[in-house]
Amino acid sequence: MARSRRRVTRSATQKSPEPSPSSSRSSLTPMEDEPVQPPDPTPTESPPTKADEDVCPSCREDVHGEKNNWIRCDACKTWFHWACAGNGGDPELINKWYCGPCMIEKPSRVMTLKIPARKSSRKRTQLDYASLNAGVDSDPSRWLRVIQSKPIKDDNFRRMKGADVGLEWLENDETAMREPIVVESPEGLVMKMPPPEFTVQDVADQIGHETPVEVIDVATQSNSPGWTLGRWAEYYNTEPSKRDKIRNVISLEISGSKLADQVLPPRLVRELDWVEKFWPSTRKGKGHAYPKVQLYCLMGVASAWTDWHVDFAGSSVYYHILGGSKVFYFIRPTPANFQAYERWSGTEMQSNVWLGDMVDEVVKVTLHAGNTMIIPTGWIHAVHTPIDSLVFGGNFLHSYNVATQLKVIDIEKATHVPKKFRFPLFVKLCWYVGDKYLRDLKSKEEFPPRVLESLEALSRFLVSESRTMERGTEAARREAKENVPSDRVKDAPAMARELRWRVRLAAGATSDDEDLGRPVQKNMVNGHKRKRSPAGTTAGVEFRNFQPKGWDVVNELPRESGERVVNVHPPSTTDKWEQNWTDWNEELEDGDAGEQAAVEKTRDVVIKVRKTEGGVERQRIERVMEKWVWKDVSLKLEEGDPQDVEMKTADDEFVARVEGSEASVTPALLETTQAMEVMTA
């Protein structure tokens, strides 16, 4: 057994006293009435003498600290300063201790601790003083009785087959992910769940009986501290009549455990999930902080009740009943209902007012074992557990309703929801999402209108974060900057404003309106209808917050010009003359059969060069313009309005304009322009 003691001054021949095995006194504090033991013939058994009281085998010059505590190796019986050889803990708690050389000599030697003092396991009656002081009713079934007298509608939500729940449904159905859906059988969802016979005891066995778990007291809707999975499994397996309280577990996140290998969300969830799609894979897993909200295990006993709530950040939810049953009560996420929820949440009304009385309607959905439900963004809901149940589910953010997700964020801030109950690393995730969509927009990728609407809301949120960095208080600026992932986003304000600009361009906007709070009134100037602009004129496009990157060198070469005379027939409206003149080539002469035309040709070349992060980028722009004039030729046009013909090919831009009604034009003029742009990097 390891011995530790406080050093005292003794003679060179005096041995340190050893307490008897039955003694309960600490060996760190010597007692004056301890009998002096006879000398031990083994020199290594004696503690340091006055001559070597400041030296132990592990003493080093760089160790500075308390050297009054000594500890003896249980193998070689050598004494060491605890400050030199210990690990910084309390030596009073050590049962067996070995020095470094002895542990190397025999690796099976390990340090052990003393058995803790025995504590009574007898149950004691627990009084909920917090609830008594607040006047909260401790009856866990009170809301179930209230429901009996309230108007509750049965749901008319869609029942879908698992194979139909995919991206094609989301992109082709405008109502997709706007209301909850129920999939009665898991076939086709492409997800993985434990077998139906899986139990709460299996959960504890696979995750660990000593794993802490947050347990909710249903009567007060508050956390009960000190619970582990082993204790919870014991409670869950107790007969209902012998349970002291109704309790519930709704936030056991299982990522990284053995159980996580048996759970895989539905395919649609994985395809939409922001964390899955946009959080860098190199920054996930063990040792990295990332949003772990995809895999939850929920365990509730009969009569458990989860009060009205919106999942954090308005995240959507997938919910699979492995065993038991659940009854959901839903409230639609309308602006009026959100206002009612905000007034109710976090106030005294939450304890004594039925939220359903403050909203338009409450809808009821009952789920049974094997059912899966997907709850869209922002739906307010409460949950009743009629029988003991085991559920697997998870939360996910997506790009089809970002505005509502951000609205829930505002409600959480207004109702002072603690940060530990909010979506983890939400702002940093938004920066990752914005960065990826910005790169996609730069590469001309197209998105559905619902996604563009969401990206508009996301860009406004990121711009507001940028303004906080620029104009907020010192603490706010520091927090906003810490939320920016520096591995992807180098200039957050510029990135946010460029994203907003490109999203609006993709949506068909022509300018970047700085006043984001007011809806834009089209064709209105100072409250009056704006006059129609003259034909052929367009307003200039101004971008206040985004400056495209400039070029380091812009070199315009001298203009080249020349004239020549060719024999070619003039264009005629009676045949398809556009095709002949659109194919840009030098072989338009018709020989002697054609008519003489004078051709004036000019050529301008501009070369641009700039440095980039990866090297050099250069651009060559070449513009060639030709004017063809025929002498004494009438160009007849068909009756009708003036023609304005624009033709483009992949490599050339060709514009031909002929203005006038049915009239003779002498000389006839055909103007062609070729613009070629070559870019190499």
From TrEMBL:
Lineage, top ranks: Eukaryota, Fungi, Dikarya, Basidiomycota, Agaricomycotina
Every JmjC domain range: 254-413
Organism: Rhizopogon vinicolor AM-OR11-026
Xref: Pfam families: JHD, JmjC, PHD
Enzyme type, top EC level: oxidoreductase
CDD domains the UniProt entry points to: PHD_TCF19_like
Protein name per its UniProtKB record: JmjC domain-containing histone demethylation protein 1
One Gene Ontology term, aspect cellular component: nucleus
The UniProt record lists the keyword Methyltransferase: no
Role this protein plays: Histone demethylase that specifically demethylates 'Lys-36' of histone H3, thereby playing a central role in histone code.
Record's catalysed reaction(s): N(6),N(6)-dimethyl-L-lysyl(36)-[histone H3] + 2 2-oxoglutarate + 2 O2 = L-lysyl(36)-[histone H3] + 2 formaldehyde + 2 succinate + 2 CO2
Sequence ranges assigned to domain PHD-type in this UniProt record: 53-105
